[in-house]
Design goal:
The protein contains 6 helices and 4 strands. The chain is α/β, with parallel strands linked by helices. It has a 4-stranded parallel β-sheet with strand order 1-2-3-4, covered by helices on one side. The mean pLDDT is 88.
Length: 171
């Protein structure tokens, strides 16, 4: 595999989409690999109990899809403490599998949006995680696919108006 050949050095894992057995198998197959958490607020089910993240989920207990999540965030219908709680649970889950998490990214780049960026920066510091995928690296990556995220920037601007702009990261 590419990981065994050293081509892949880090694997980003969606904490709410992976089983302990899958992690055990991965660790057996590849020894010298680093792990990243791919924080997820917009797909599947949360790791937190439903009552603790009620503003993040729909009636079936699944996360809101990204467009609905962002609209609810802009309307003030998302509890920011619930976001922090769920993100902590996701990192804790991967660590409970014996993984050292040294990098954070997010599914659909949700960590970039105000106020999630500030929550994620605070979380990374408090959990002593060394790296956070930066806005600059994502902008660079998206230059080749601007159509993919054409609606991100107006939404980013609207959320900045509501919550203030993102603080610079120290990571």
């Amino acid at each position: 595999s590419a990981a065994q050949a050293g081509v892949i050095q880090i694997i980003s894992i969606l904490p709410n989409k992976v089983s302990h057995l899958q992690i055990i198998q991965l660790k057996r197959q590849v020894k010298n690999l680093r792990f990243s958490t791919h924080l997820n607020l917009v797909e599947g089910k949360p790791l937190s109990k439903r009552g603790k993240v009620s503003t993040l989920i729909n009636k079936t207990g699944h996360f809101w899809p990204l467009p609905i999540f962002l609209l609810r965030l802009w309307l003030g219908l998302i509890n920011l403490r619930q976001i922090r709680r769920e993100l902590i649970e996701q990192v804790k889950r991967l660590r409970s599998f014996g993984l050292t998490i040294d990098h954070v990214n997010s599914h659909r780049h949700t960590h970039l949006f105000p106020p999630i960026w500030n929550i994620t920066c605070s979380l990374v510091r408090s959990l002593e995680i060394s790296q956070l995928r930066s806005r600059q690296s994502i902008r660079q990556a998206l230059k080749s696919h601007p159509e993919k995220y054409i609606f991100h920037w107006p939404i980013f601007w609207l959320l900045s108006l509501r919550y203030g702009s993102n603080k610079p990261s120290t990571r």
